[in-house]
Design goal:
This protein is an alpha/beta fold. The protein is built from eight helices and four strands, in the order βααβααβαααβα. The longest helix is centred in the middle third of the chain and has 19 residues.
Length: 168
């Protein structure tokens, strides 16, 4: 359910795609146990006009998972699907968009501070909470939310990441 702007109008909803969701969409072997449910949920969210953003860390982490597939034939197939999805994203033909921002000093400072999680990067490491990739998704979501008039969330299947999926 979307939140309301102070004017009383419902804010649009934007979901940042976490790696745990994107590997299901791409059907990455051994990381695709919930694929049917994720695809059904994606269709439902698209019907509800929820917009999707593909964060930088999701692309990098997913690529790492694809490249680590042990079976060479499966790795080639999955890498081809991944490549095609990235090309569609670049061409604006995917059901998500990129958050086109630069990694500048302010973004890096937000990453170090842990975004809106209330813990900095070192504290996340000590408590074994979010890794740098997940923290960058949180920081990227926070940056996007600061500029957008929208309810901005992270769509994740991971319990720990789910703790910070919605802005406080």
């Amino acid at each position: 359910m979307s939140r309301q702007h102070r004017s009383g109008l419902r804010l649009p909803v934007v979901d940042f795609l976490d790696t745990s969701v994107f590997v299901e969409i791409l059907d990455v072997p051994h990381m695709n146990d919930h694929r049917a449910g994720v695809l059904a949920e994606m269709d439902d969210r698209l019907r509800k006009k929820i917009r999707f953003v593909l964060p930088t860390a999701t692309v990098v982490e997913t690529g790492n998972h694809v490249f680590q597939i042990k079976d060479g034939t499966a790795r080639r197939t999955c890498a081809g699907i991944f490549l095609n999805m990235l090309r569609k994203t670049a061409a604006g033909e995917a059901p998500w968009v990129l958050h086109e921002r630069t990694w500048d000093g302010a973004f890096l400072a937000s990453l170090c501070d842990g975004g809106t999680t209330g813990m900095d990067l070192a504290e996340h490491a000590v408590r074994q909470q979010l890794g740098t990739g997940d923290l960058s998704i949180v920081a990227e979501r926070d940056l996007y939310a600061a500029r957008a008039q929208a309810e901005v969330r992270i769509w994740t299947l991971e319990a720990t990441m789910g703790t910070w999926a919605e802005l406080p």
